Amino acid sequence: MTKAIRINKTGGPEVMEYLDVELAAAGPGEALIHQMACGLNYIDVYFRTGLYPQTLPAGLGMEGAGVVAAVGEGVTHVKPGDRVAYAGGPPGAYAESRVLPAKVLVKLPASIDFETGAAMMLQGLTAQYLLRRTFRLQGGETILFHAAAGGVGLIACQWARALGVTMIGTVGSDEKAALAKAHGCTHTINYNTENFVERVKEITHGAGVPVVYDSIGKDTFIGSLDCLSPMGMLVSYGNASGPVPPFSLTELASRGSLFVTRPSIFTYTAKRDDLEQMSAELFGMIESGKIKLSINQRYALKDVAQAHIDLESRKTTGSTILIP
Asked: Could you tell me the keywords of this UniProt record (predicted)?
């Protein structure tokens, strides 16, 4: 038996239950891991509310770090005793121990502790594919990044600085603006007191930016398009304010032949070679000190409802972890 969070129906934070769960043995292609920490991400809210459907009852949570306890037939890239971290696989990271597909596991360098490992994988790999693959930054660009003081945002601030990129970041308060700037964001815009489209045009002297990274969704989508220079790209990778409503493709043509993409980490990490390369680049940035993880909230696993309440009310900054 292990302690784990389960939902039997979708809804608010109250639907999450802290239960004793029977733990199966690791089958072919699977691994059993004892988790030292697991990460909290907005995608967990999407699964909890039913925006992203799954068969119920179900677990929640997409990333964690711990020690391999056992492996099933055919698993060769990890073995019992290995320190590992992961992002992806079926939801279920909110647990003391779990069985999951071994293909999502990567070995955690000895220099990176478990809490950092749990906090960095989904958000760090997201920042990696956004900045290095979806729209590959070369250095010298000026970009717009929404929610710059969030978990992905603070990693992106540091990564952009390391690449020589000028980041314009939107935030929800003066305190979050200061936090983003401390992590490398060049310009901040408080969207509660300023019009972010007007400010981007002002900062770029009317030129706009070649790329906007937008995890907010409905509330910022059209404004994000308006911030782009001709043939620019809007990378819509989240729905914190709700899904983007249907729109006409002429909206892209009229603004200068724009591009829109909706990437997913699960596509970018589907191939083992890609997962290994992306993880190695992320680990290298952490080990070099160019990126420092800001774990600004820690909750006991049994207090996950409060963690979700704080996340949805935008009280959290940086990364949040749950301790089993």
From this structure: NADP, Oxidoreductase
Residue 129 lies in a domain: no
Q: Domain check: are 188 and 114 in the same one?
A: no
- The 3-state secondary structure of 117-183 reads HHHHHHHHHHHHHHHHHHCCCCCCCEEEECCCCEHHHHHHHHHHHHHCCEEEEEECCHHHHHHHHHC
Domain CATH code at residue 41: 3.90.180.10
How far from each other are the two terminal CA atoms of the chain, in whole angstroms? 14
Per-residue model confidence as pLDDT tens digits over 27-53: 999 999 999 999 999 889 999 999 889
Q: Is 303 helix (H, G, I), strand (E, B) or coil?
A: helix
Per-residue pLDDT at 315 exceeds 90: no
Could you tell me which residues are beta bridge partners of residue 150? 318
Q: Could you read off the pLDDT of 139-150 as tens digits, one per residue?
A: 999 999 999 998
Give the residue from 262, 285, 304 where a domain finishes: 262
**Residue 110 CB coordination number (10 Å):** 7
d(CA 34, CA 39): 14
Count of the separate structural domains present in the chain: 2
Q: Residue for token digits 């901040």?
A: 188
Residue 319 to residue 297: CA distance in whole angstroms = 7
Range of the domain at 186: 139-262
Q: Is 52 within a domain? A: yes
Residues 304 and 297 sit within 8 Å (Cβ to Cβ): no
For 253-308, how does the pLDDT look when each residue is reduced to its tens digit (9 = 90+)? Answer: 999 999 999 999 989 999 999 999 999 999 999 999 999 988 989 999 999 999 99
User: Contacts for 268-275 with beta carbons within 8 Å, 24 or more apart?
Assistant: 268/125, 268/129, 268/133, 269/87, 269/88, 269/104, 269/125, 269/129, 272/103, 275/104, 275/106
172 with 210, same domain: the answer is yes
The amino acid at 41: N
* Token pair for 204: 């770029």
Give the model's pLDDT for residue 16: 97
